[in-house]
TrEMBL record:
Residues annotated as signal peptide: none
Family: Belongs to the ABC transporter superfamily.
Pfam family, one: ABC_tran
SUPFAM superfamilies on file: P-loop containing nucleoside triphosphate hydrolases
Protein name (database record): Polar amino acid transport system ATP-binding protein/glutamine transport system ATP-binding protein
InterPro entries: AAA+_ATPase, ABC_ATPase_HisP-typ, ABC_transporter-like_ATP-bd, ABC_transporter-like_CS, MetN_ABC_transporter-like, P-loop_NTPase
PANTHER family: AMINO ACID IMPORT ATP-BINDING PROTEIN, PHOSPHONATES IMPORT ATP-BINDING PROTEIN PHNC
Catalytic activity, EC: 3.6.3.-
Keywords: ATP-binding, Hydrolase, Nucleotide-binding, Transport
UniProt lineage: Bacteria, Pseudomonadati, Pseudomonadota, Alphaproteobacteria, Hyphomicrobiales
Location of the ABC transporter domain: 2-235
Length: 244
């Protein structure tokens, strides 16, 4: 389980996460919605141990991200893909995907490369194993980013607006892969502005507003007039998204 309990995070005087509670069970697909600045990326970075908590606790399959001795194990279990393509530019696609399995999981190069090629095939990029990130389109880079996260066999795949820098065609390429992963039981925490897509693939939707989880509901209830839509902020957010 991924357990987030009473999490607080501030930057200086600015409170960004103000007591967030959220539990993700294996097999669930949970989307995090919320306006810009509501704290979504900060929450993902806290789960990944990239930000130090000011209060509360996050544990990934029992490993506490705030304990230096447990952070490594926690991180291995939460594979993360960010909005901006953060592939290593000086390494090939294959190098990017295999480096962590080889260095962190101590897998043999041959084994890591075999798995990397299988992952690349599953996202339609078999031919690009030897390319450098700079030679790929944005959509291809994000697909490699997803392979790189999956190569660590994480328990949870965290995705922070992985399509927001892509044009509609590339977005569709990446969303198709995420849909396939969701359908095959990959546990995902999905930060997105793609409301309709979130509705299609999520078991649950949570809405973050000014650092607080305003709503945490099964997907259909979230969109229901007496469910999430009963919250003025959610209704307002959704109507704005539909206009955009
Ligand atoms: N390192 C930092 N130092 C200071 N303030 C920060 C830092 N990181 C984030 N913030 C602030 O925290 C707030 C939440 O930021 P965050 O990136 O988590 O929002 P978000 O919900 O992901 O927004 P978006 O939808 O635009 O990506 C913002 O006000 C932001 O300016
Ligand atoms: Mg963000």
């Amino acid at each position: 389980m991924l357990e987030i309990a009473s999490v607080k995070k501030s930057f200086g005087n600015v409170v960004v996460l103000d007591g967030v509670d959220l539990t993700i069970k294996p097999g669930e697909v949970v989307s995090i919605l919320g306006s810009s600045g509501s704290g979504k990326s900060t929450l993902i970075r806290c789960i990944n141990g990239l930000e130090k908590l000011n209060g509360g606790r996050i544990s990934v399959d029992g490993f506490d991200v705030s304990k230096p001795k447990e952070l490594g194990e926690a991180r291995k279990r939460s594979g993360t893909v960010f909005q901006l393509f953060n592939l290593y530019p000086h390494m090939t696609v294959l190098g990017n995907i295999t480096i962590a399995p080889i260095e962190v999981l101590k897998r043999s190069r041959a084994e890591a490369e075999k798995e990397a090629r299988e992952l690349l095939a599953s996202v339609g990029l078999s031919e690009r194993a030897d390319a450098y990130p700079g030679q790929l389109s944005g959509g291809q880079r994000q697909r490699v980013g997803i392979c790189r996260a999956l190569a660590m066999k994480p328990s949870y795949l965290l995705l922070d607006e992985v399509t927001s820098a892509l044009d509609p065609e590339m977005t569709a390429e990446v969303l198709a892969i995420l849909e396939k992963l969701a359908a095959t039981g990959t546990t995902m925490v999905f930060v997105t502005h793609e409301v309709e897509f979130a509705r299609r693939i999520s078991d649950r939707i949570v809405f973050l507003e000014k650092g607080k989880l305003l709503v945490d509901l099964p997907t259909e209830e979230f969109f229901h007039a007496e469910g999430g839509m009963a919250q003025p902020r959610v209704a307002q957010f959704l109507s704005k998204m539909r206009k955009d």
